[in-house]
């Protein structure tokens, strides 16, 4: 059974964030800090940041399909960097599509085969509150993931020099019930919040 303080935290927080309108990481943390039902677990974290660059030099290839090996390397690198189940499974960014974009070959035609330079990039960001507490993980979690993928190709005669890569920045924060605040709530308020959350999640 879920702890009553968790239920109060969830119900109270849902009411507080209903009209939340934020566009960046600092804003969302500042907003959550003002919700009295929540207490941040630990301090604010610095962003984790890393990048992967994959160079290549090869004979000119008119096939513009993506390189499966390169795409796989990018996906593995990203999962090892983040190492958080909830972020990996709940984020709205499709890392496979982004990896395929970075690993895709350029469209080679007769007119640009002898010499040519192509550069492309794509930037994506996800900012979300991703999960509600449960018995095993009694906390709210919020995260942000920022990704920039690029690919470039320089062709001279029959040789193609190129590289592709991805830059990733991510951060997250966890919140537990503010037991001191919840303890001092009026009983009627707590009962109302618990009833609301029981009805919402069919916990009765």
Written overview of the protein:
- The protein has 204 residues and is α+β, with helices and mostly antiparallel strands.
- It has one domain (4-201).
- Helix content is 36%, strand content 33%.
- It has helices at 4-17, 25-33, 68-82, 85-90, 95-103, 179-183, 187-201; strands at 38-40, 48-59, 115-131, 140-156, 159-177.
- A hairpin with a 2-residue loop joins strand 4 and strand 5.
- The protein starts with a helix and ends with a helix.
Q: What is the chain-wise order of helices and strands?
A: HHEEHHHEEEHH
Instruction: List the uncertain runs.
Output: none
Number of helices: 7
Strand content: 25-35%
Mean pLDDT: 85
List keywords for this structure.
204 residues, alpha+beta, five-stranded antiparallel β-sheet, 7 helices, 36% helix
Concise account of the structure shown:
With 204 residues, this protein is an alpha+beta fold. It has helices at residues 4-17, 25-33, 68-82, 85-90, 95-103, 179-183, 187-201, and strands at 38-40, 48-59, 115-131, 140-156, 159-177.
Helix-strand layout with pairing:
Layout: H1 4-17, H2 25-33, E1 38-40, E2 48-59, H3 68-82, H4 85-90, H5 95-103, E3 115-131, E4 140-156, E5 159-177, H6 179-183, H7 187-201
Antiparallel strand pairs: 1-5, 2-5, 3-4, 4-5
Helix pairs in contact: 1-7, 3-5
């Amino acid at each position: 059974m879920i702890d009553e303080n968790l239920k109060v935290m969830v119900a109270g927080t849902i009411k507080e964030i209903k009209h939340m309108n934020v566009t960046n990481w600092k804003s969302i943390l500042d907003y959550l800090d003002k919700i009295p039902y929540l207490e941040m677990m630990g301090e604010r974290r610095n962003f984790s940041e890393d990048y992967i660059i994959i160079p290549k030099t090869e004979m000119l290839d008119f096939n513009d399909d993506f390189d499966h090996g390169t795409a796989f390397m990018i996906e593995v690198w990203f999962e090892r960097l983040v190492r958080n189940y909830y972020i990996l499974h709940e984020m709205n960014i499709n890392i496979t599509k982004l990896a395929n974009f970075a690993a895709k070959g350029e469209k080679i035609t007769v007119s640009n085969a002898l010499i040519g330079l192509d550069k492309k990039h794509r930037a994506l960001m996800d900012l979300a509150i991703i999960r509600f507490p449960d018995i095993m993980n009694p906390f709210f979690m919020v995260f942000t993931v920022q990704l920039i993928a690029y690919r470039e190709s320089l062709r001279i005669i029959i040789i193609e020099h190129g590289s592709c890569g991805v830059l990733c920045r991510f951060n997250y924060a966890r919140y537990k019930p503010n037991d001191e605040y919840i303890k001092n709530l009026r009983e009627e308020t707590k009962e109302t919040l618990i009833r609301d959350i029981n009805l919402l999640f069919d916990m009765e």
